[in-house]
Each structure stands twice: as C-alpha cells, then as structure tokens.
Predict the structure.
Amino acid sequence: MKFGRYTFRSFMMILCTLPLLAGCKDLIDDNLDNCAAEVAITYELRLVTNIQTEIATELNQPEDAYVKQALESYLQPVFTDFAHDLDLSFYDVVGENPLLHHKSEIMDASQTSYTLHLPAQNYMHNAVANVQGNGVVSLQNIDFGHKASLDQVKTKAGEDSIATHKTGLFTGRLKEMDVKAGGKDQTFTVTLNMANCATALVIDTTGSNLKSIKVYSTGFATGLKIADNEYDYPVNYPIVKDDRLNVTAGNKICFASVNYPSKDTPGSKTIIETTDPFVSVGSNTALWQWRCYATLPDGTITLSVLNVKRPLRPGQLEIVKARAFDNGVIDTTAPQVGVSVVLDWTPGGHYIPIL
C-alpha cells in the first residue's frame, strides 16, 4: 500500500510459544513461576523507501531506459518485502543482558508460523532478517544484548576496498518482553526496519573517449548496535568498491553500491518535522563521497571526488547524474554535490582527506 510518495510494505511472521506438554518441572526444576507460557509474537517487516520516486525522478528520459532497467534489477534483492532468514535472540533484562535463547530460521516466505518454547520471565529481544547472503555483514557479539551488532568485514591485508552489501538488512527489538506464566492472550509485536541503503552514480560518457572508469565510495557506517539501533562511524572510513552495472546499450554507465548510512546532518532531525523521512537540511561539509578514477588513452589517470553534502539514510536510494569529459573529469550539476579534481593522479601521490 502507498502513503503519498513513499512505499510501505510489510509482512507478518507469526511465532507462537506453547506450553510444554511434559510439565514445567521438566524445563526448570519445580519452579512454577518459570513455566512456559502461550505467547503470540508478530514480526512485521516494514520497508520504508524512496526507491520508486527516486528512479522515476532521476531516470525519466528516454536515454535513461537501459540504466533504469539495470539499476532496478540490481536493487531488486535489496529493497524487498521478502525475508529469507530470520535470527532471534532473547536476553535477560538484568546485568549485562546475557543471552538466554537463540534461534535461526529459514523463512523463504512472506508469512510463516512456528513454535518456540520459552520460560516465563522478562526478556529483551533482538530480531534480524536477511543476514545470510549479504556477503559483507555478519551478526557479531550475540552473547550479550547491548553488544550484539551487525558488523562489516574489515579490509584484509593487501586489499584497499570492500564489496557492497548484497541483501537488504532489517532489524527489530523489544526492550522488554514480559512473558507471564499461565498468561492468556499475551501478544507482542516486533517491527523490523531497513538498516542499509543504496547509491547510484550515472555517468554520461558521450564523446569522452576514456579507456576506463572505476568508482569507489566512502563515508558510511561500518556496523549497527542492534539493541540501541546505533550506527558505528569509524575514524578512518573503509573504501567501498562500487559495482558497475550491466547497462546493455547507450552511452551512459552506472555504478551502484549498497551500504550502511552516512552520518546525518547535525541538527536536521530537530529542524524539520515531516512525514518524509528523506527530506534533510544540507550540510556545509561533505558527509560521504564518490571517488572516480578515469584512465585516459595515454594511461594517465584523473581523479574526481564527488562530495555529497546530503545525508544518506536507512532505506534511501540516492541517484546522481554526472558527465565524463576528455580529460577524465567527472562532473555534475547536482546541487548537493561538490566536485574536486586531481589531474594526472598517481597512487599514493595525493592526499584524499578523510570525512
């Protein structure tokens, strides 16, 4: 269903915890206060995105048709209302929130139900969807609730970049989930929201006669603390190698990436109150960037750095159109992007400031 210009998709996954037929003493001694209870937990995957609006707005010319087709195909497994896998962790609410119960399920459906037995007590609950197959992000530190995180792989020795995410990640949490022994009609709802986002740089190469173009991006978070829904921003941002899409015809090429969000504009969330989650106040400095390396026919390389002053938020797609010139410069008229250029660039010969 649609609300205004933004798409909200959801599915419900029903999980029921049923009483143990063998009796409570088989679970935890004879303590009747810890009996298993009948509990219904509803998981709702909520996709809030601007993908359709962004593509319709930025790729609206006839010559954009092949880029649009390639980008939609690339992003289809990411911006989806389908959950492949679901990871559930239940923690104690006291002390360091130790893990009490953990379960992983293969969903492969929009709706499903299964049975889980839990002792009656108060829990903190984390839920994560679509980690399997992501290729970059893995679930870490699950033994303690407030340390559990979705972290990206670190750059290995000898490697200068990491790949982009291959799945759309969703997370949800309940700070308190009080399961009462013998309780009737106990229900809980966990909403899972998208945790990553995407970028696309579309370059018109008409008449540029360049040997090759490579695009990297940087300025994004490297991990997410699930219980607190807080992103980790490092001192030195990793470099992401953007994927060149298979655009089958025309003079436009497209580089895309799926990654965690950038830092937000300081104060923008309190300045504007809106139903549009992607409207933001521009920053005076770059929040993230593309680095474009264009190789000329003579082998020299031109580096163009496209500094984006608008934040990239969870669930968002940001498309920027640019143009390549004979001297290797990649330039854009997009108002939220500033461009700096290094002609005759050599590896290690010029300092690129860290965001």
User: Anything to note?
Assistant: Residues 1-33, 268-274 have pLDDT under 50 and may be disordered.
